[in-house]
Amino acid sequence: MKRIVVYYSLSGNTEAAAKKIAEKLGADLLKVDTEKPMPKSFAAQIIVGGGQVMMNHIPKLKPLEKDPAEYDEIILGSPIWNSKGVPAINAFLQDEKAAAKVKSLFFLSGGGDTKKGLEAITKKLPNLKHSVSLLDKKHKDSKDNDAKIEKFLSEISE
Ligand SMILES: Cc1cc2nc3c(=O)[nH]c(=O)nc-3n(C[C@H](O)[C@H](O)[C@H](O)COP(=O)(O)O)c2cc1C
User: Fold this and answer.
1) What top-level class would CATH report for the domain 3-157?
2) Is the CB of 52 under 6 A from ligand 1?
3) Is 142 touching ligand 1 by the criterion CB < 6 Å?
4) Where exactly are the structural domains of the chain?
5) Residue owning the nearest CA to atom 8 of ligand 1
6) How far apart are CA 52 and CA 64, in angstroms?
7) Is the pLDDT of residue 158 over 90?
8) What pLDDT, in 10s, does the model give residues 20-46?
9) Which of 3, 11, 15, 132 could bond to 27 as cystine, CB 3.0-4.6 Å?
10) Is the whole-model pTM more than 0.70?
């Protein structure tokens, strides 16, 4: 079983979780990123990123450094933006063959309310079985992330 963790991360939280998950599973790692960079300031990110989510904008991605077609299973990581998934991940999921390989999903959010995001992304992931909601390192309960990741990993490995 050849697995890859595919993720997007603007400020490092999803990346930290992606690295842990990939290491523990012995999976490869692939970061997706947009050709056009996001603004540096959080306020501008909220305006630009929030606007993109509202408009269902599908950005152009930088060329992928690994080919999802070479893997049996994808573990997908995404931050929550405006209660939904992020445009870069929506762009990645336009590859329906790759979307069909996603069995597990981890979300990073500032507040932990991932219901709408999960609903939105589930429509694009016909084979999704496991998901976990992790918290931004600024949240007081982010100390529970490691235990949640362990549970998620044991579900994936069943
Ligand atoms: C444009 C934007 C919109 C966001 N919207 C939400 C939101 O609706 N709900 C929430 O809980 N967190 C929201 N956040 C916070 C991120 O989900 C959170 O900081 C996450 O840890 C970021 O992951 P990253 O460091 O991998 O980029 C938003 C962040 C950005 C930049």
Assistant:
1) alpha beta
2) no
3) no
4) 3-157
5) 82
6) 21
7) no
8) 999 999 999 999 999 999 999 999 999
9) 3
10) yes
